[in-house]
Design the sequence.
């Protein structure tokens, strides 16, 4: 017993399907409604923080990914959400190289939450707990820094929009939509560049709707020629994001920020526009889901994380897992 | 569930944010190094260097870049498992018992440039190249290590800190405090390392930041607007003493054993203007690597003291 102890080998899976997410959340979230309500509150809180701290969209986006990801493997506790969200932002600042002192972040956090009587002790405790949470957040991402590293939705809207030679109005609308998209779970499902393409597609189509399909023919014909593989993605991923986003607007249009932010000279966009998009798009397609039985057998999603396991290894490549499996088997055979 | 895979046998070093142990990977029997990240009692939580190290090493996989084998959590501490590398170029340069030849230097330069080319190809700036961070594997391969200061190439409007790279290896644009700079800062560092390999003493050893400018420009000439447009608009430029650039003859005297193409490579890596400084591809394609002597086979280079 002395020199050997239990170890766990976990393969990083930075993106999950909708069903897989639901399965993981079963263990951690008892009341999804409350979770969703609080998430909106937290996104507002994080957005306010980012505005105050002059942080770019990518820092906000990464913080939200961390917040959502944390709740796949750690229990959702209402009273801790602000602490957790602040910790996510601290970490996200480091990840996206938009560094801020933890002190400054804490001060702004109190300011944004309108907590005025803050003494030194409160501040120190807050800071300490933020630091304690950091590693747990990273562990829920399997320390997989490949995510949220080079790819961010807003940056790719600009880059891909430019390379497709879309009008700046279309890209601006896409950029507005991209903010609302952060409120959905799509960050957990699809990599950001595919999300950016789906948003641009939606934006192009929204403009076309209002032009009775002839004013913006240039844009729509451009879209039919888009080669997704050129952007390192594929039709299924883009469609998955496309339907996630249109469904998100159809279900929650009233809580979205799009309506209040569309410039005056843009066509009117309402919930009916998204319903129309969906009708035109035909039957919903996207990524393949596994059968429920398989999902229920997946220990990655079903077992709650055991922090008492002394050595919890996180690896990025399945090759490593296979090699290790083979080497253990070989040893046993011998 | 399986048995623990890593042992920590001997503590070999301690830095500001990590303790390094030597150990074994039990599944393979290989020697490895474990970097245990200190996570408690930090002012700003998890150290930025630790984050950068993991972030960039996960992206990179190349024979001349240190390999991050694994990451694990144990006793609530984060541990990075890295390949075991017994020595580094600084140790080798300083050890007067080790003799090395121009072909050995060529081999090290080639491996360093290949590693850094790979780093740059992945849109990453290393920002701390120095002999101490060029580790050497048991079979003689150079491995670019320590990504604690690395960062992704910034977007056009992002500001960078010029307070990077160990002083002696700092490019002139950094000495001037530039907020925007490129891969060229890494090439400069390799150029200084190249000179140090030939001289076996540090080439531009400034005592402090001001003195570093003095030392650099005295050795290589103060840049002018003609060589480097608008260099004079950097704050502090006017206070500089103007030195002439060294002539080829002067360089030949400084580096007696160097061939003409070795000097050409070095001159172009130590170009004042970062825009005209060679990039890693130009360096790798230079005449120096094509002419004789051919670079030594890494496995044949003596990297440990040969006590006679």
Sequence:
């Amino acid at each position: 017993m002395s020199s050997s102890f239990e170890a766990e080998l976990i393969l990083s899976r930075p993106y999950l399907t909708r069903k897989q997410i639901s399965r993981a959340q079963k263990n951690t979230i008892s009341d999804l409604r409350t979770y969703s309500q609080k998430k909106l509150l937290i996104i507002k809180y994080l957005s306010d923080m980012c505005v105050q701290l002059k942080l770019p969209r990518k820092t906000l986006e990464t913080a939200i990914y961390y917040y959502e990801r944390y709740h796949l493997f750690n229990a959702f506790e209402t009273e801790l959400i602000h602490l957790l969200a602040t910790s996510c932002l601290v970490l996200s600042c480091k990840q996206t190289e938009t560094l801020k002192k933890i002190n400054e972040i804490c001060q702004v956090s109190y300011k944004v939450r309108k907590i005025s009587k803050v003494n030194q002790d409160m501040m120190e405790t807050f800071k300490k707990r933020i630091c304690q949470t950091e590693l747990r957040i990273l562990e829920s991402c399997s320390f997989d820094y490949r995510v949220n590293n080079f790819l961010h939705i807003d940056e790719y809207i600009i880059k891909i929009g430019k390379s497709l030679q879309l009008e700046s109005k279309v890209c601006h609308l896409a950029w507005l939509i991209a903010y609302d998209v952060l409120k959905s779970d799509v960050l957990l499902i699809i990599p950001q560049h595919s999300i950016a393409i789906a948003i641009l597609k939606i934006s192009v189509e929204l403009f076309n709707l209002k032009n009775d399909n002839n004013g913006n023919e240039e844009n729509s014909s451009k879209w039919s020629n888009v080669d997704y593989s050129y952007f390192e993605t594929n039709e299924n991923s883009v469609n998955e994001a496309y339907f996630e986003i249109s469904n998100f607007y159809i279900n929650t249009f009233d809580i979205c920020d799009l309506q209040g932010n569309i410039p005056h000279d843009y066509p009117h966009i309402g919930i009916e526009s998204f319903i129309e998009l969906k009708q035109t798009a035909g039957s919903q397609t996207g990524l393949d889901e596994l059968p429920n039985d398989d999902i229920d057998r997946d220990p990655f999603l079903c077992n709650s994380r055991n922090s008492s396991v002394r050595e919890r290894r996180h690896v990025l490549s399945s090759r490593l897992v296979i090699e290790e499996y083979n080497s253990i088997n070989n040893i046993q055979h011998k | 569930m399986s048995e623990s895979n890593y042992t920590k046998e001997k503590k070999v070093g301690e830095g500001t944010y990590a303790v390094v142990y030597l150990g074994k990977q039990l599944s393979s029997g290989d020697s490895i190094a474990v970097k245990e990240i200190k996570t408690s009692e930090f002012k700003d939580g998890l150290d930025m260097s630790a984050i950068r190290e993991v972030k960039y090493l996960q992206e990179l996989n190349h024979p001349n870049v240190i390999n991050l084998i694994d990451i694990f959590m144990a006793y609530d501490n984060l541990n990075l498992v890295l390949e075991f590398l017994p020595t580094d170029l600084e140790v080798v340069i300083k050890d007067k018992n080790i003799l090395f030849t121009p072909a050995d230097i060529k081999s090290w330069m080639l491996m360093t440039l290949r590693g850094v080319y790979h780093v740059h190809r992945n849109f990453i700036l290393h920002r701390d190249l120095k002999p101490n961070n060029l580790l050497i594997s048991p079979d003689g391969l150079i491995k670019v290590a320590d990504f604690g200061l690395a960062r992704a190439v910034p977007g056009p409007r992002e500001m960078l800190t010029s307070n990077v790279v160990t002083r002696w290896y700092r490019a002139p644009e950094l000495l001037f405090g530039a907020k925007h700079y490129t891969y060229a800062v890494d090439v400069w560092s390799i150029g200084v390392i190249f000179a140090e390999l030939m001289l076996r003493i540090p080439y531009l050893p400034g005592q402090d930041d001001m003195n570093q400018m003095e030392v650099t420009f005295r050795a290589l000439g103060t840049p002018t607007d003609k060589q480097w447009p608008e260099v004079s608009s950097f704050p502090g430029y006017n206070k500089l003493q103007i030195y002439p650039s060294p002539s080829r003859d002067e360089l030949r005297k400084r580096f007696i054993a160097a061939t003409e193409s070795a000097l050409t490579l070095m001159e172009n890596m130590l170009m004042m203007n970062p825009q005209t400084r060679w990039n890693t591809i130009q360096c790798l394609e230079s005449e120096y690597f094509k002419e004789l002597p051919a670079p030594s086979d890494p496995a044949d280079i003596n990297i440990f003291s040969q006590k006679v």
